[in-house]
Design brief:
The complex is a heterodimer of chains A (282) and B (113).
Chain A lengths: L21 E5 L16 E5 L10 H8 L4 E4 L13 H14 L4 E4 L2 E4 L2 E7 L5 H17 L4 E4 L14 H12 L2 E5 H11 L3 H7 L5 E7 L2 E3 L2 E3 L8 H13 L4 E5 L7 H15 L1
Parallel strand pairs in A: 1-2, 1-12, 2-3, 4-7, 7-8, 8-9, 9-12
Antiparallel strand pairs in A: 5-6, 10-11
Helix pairs in contact in A: 3-4, 5-7, 6-7, 7-8
Chain B lengths: L3 H19 L10 H22 L1 H7 L3 H11 L7 H24 L6
Classes of the chains: A alpha/beta (282), B mainly alpha (113).
Chain lengths: 282, 113
């Protein structure tokens, strides 16, 4: 795919990169009163499973009404699963994109169920040709059902498969080339891959098609017994901001957001964290 | 092109990991069992945090025992339900039952097994 997908904010200098979202945050019911008070928030992402298109919480509807773009983010489509995509989950994503006039929607390069059992978590697919085939088919099916472009995210993994044939960057690049999908690049998850599997995040940045990045996730985590846990419940570390800085050096960033899902800090701390991210990407 | 055979292999591998994580199965061949154990624990922690957010009064009533109680519940019922609300209901039922059986053991020692 050569041209840029329609519907994304236009880049004034006419390059291929979808730009213009700016600084965002993951909207969560627990911080729904904080989000509008945070300085410099230009857009929000919502977890698709937690917001119904016909029953949008008033606080979120108000933000949208004020003109903030809202991007639906699915966590349970299981694009990497061998079972057919669930039409209801797909319809929910599409319905939210319609409701909010979203520029794009996002999901994960992962599977989360098998044999009728829910893992309750995003799990890594083996990075094999067979898995590429399954993901390609599912991403194409999702793209066909969605009214706007799809971006897929690199996940935070704790386990890896012995049959992996490709690096994560090669695997994602291949998916982009096959389907034209955008990337939701999570810099915290690049850090996770470095700690948990020894993968170099800078080498990943140099290998990925950065002009296909739809937006960027930043989140905090914690090191426990030598393993990085991407908790979204701890402050963003300097190493993760360092990867973000390396990314910002390489490409104009279309949009960057903070994910905070638990152990919410004070409004002031959250604002300081947003400011620190903004400082890096300026 | 992918083949049906490789898709089947992929399905078997994915099922094997999910079974190990939520149904007490053995770790998939070649996957570090210690990492599978850590992933299982991470999943339980994530569930417990979701349940605590969903039912703060339940978490508060258990106080410091909330974490350990959730661990015991997850060990007894490792397969997570479809959503947090069902998980919270099942956890609440589990804690009621455990409390009843504890009272039974305390006050009716002869009838307990």
């Amino acid at each position: 795919m050569t041209g840029r997908p329609d519907g994304l904010p236009r880049d004034p200098d006419g390059t291929n990169a979808p730009r213009g979202l700016g600084m965002g945050i993951g909207w969560r019911p627990e911080i729904d009163l904080t989000v509008p008070r945070l300085p410099g928030i230009e857009w929000v992402e919502v977890v698709a499973e937690n917001v119904a298109p016909d029953a949008v919480p008033a606080s979120l509807a108000a933000l949208h009404q004020r003109g903030l773009p809202v991007i639906p983010h699915g966590v349970s489509l299981s694009l990497g699963g061998t079972e057919p995509l669930d039409g209801k989950r797909l319809a929910r994503l599409a319905g939210l994109a319609e409701r909010f006039g979203s520029p794009l929607v996002s999901e994960h390069v992962a599977f989360c169920r098998a044999g009728g059992m829910e893992a309750g978590h995003l799990l890594p697919v083996p990075r094999t040709r067979a898995a590429l085939g399954v993901l390609t088919e599912n991403i194409r099916a999702a793209q066909a059902a969605l009214p706007v472009p799809l971006a897929v995210e690199n996940i935070a993994a704790l386990i890896s498969w012995p049959e992996d044939e490709l690096t994560e960057a090669q695997f994602l690049t291949e998916l982009v080339e096959r389907t034209g999908v955008l990337l939701l690049l999570d810099v915290a998850n690049l850090h996770t891959a470095q700690v948990n599997f020894g993968l170099d995040p800078i080498a990943a940045l140099d290998a990925l098609p950065l002009d296909r990045v739809g937006y960027v996730h930043v989140a905090g985590g914690i090191l426990r017994d030598g393993i990085w846990h991407d908790t979204h419940a701890h402050p963003v570390s300097q190493q993760i901001l360092g990867i973000l800085a390396a990314l910002a050096e390489r490409t104009p960033l279309p949009g960057v957001m903070l994910e905070r899902d638990d152990a919410y800090p004070s409004d002031a701390e959250l604002a300081a964290e947003i400011a620190a991210i903004r400082e890096v990407i300026r | 092109m992918k083949s049906a055979r490789t898709d089947d292999e992929l399905a078997v591998r994915q099922l094997s990991l999910v079974t190990a994580l939520v149904a007490g199965g053995a770790p998939p061949a070649g996957v570090d069992p210690e990492r599978v154990r850590i992933q299982t624990q991470a999943l339980i922690r994530k569930r417990s945090r979701s349940v605590a957010r969903h039912r703060p009064e339940l978490a508060a009533s258990l106080g410091a025992d909330f974490g350990p109680a959730f661990q015991r519940y997850a060990a007894a019922e490792p397969t997570p339900p479809a959503n947090t609300s069902s998980d919270a209901k099942r956890f609440a039922r589990y804690t009621r039952k455990s409390r009843r059986s504890l009272l039974t053991r305390l006050f009716l020692p002869s009838s307990s097994t």
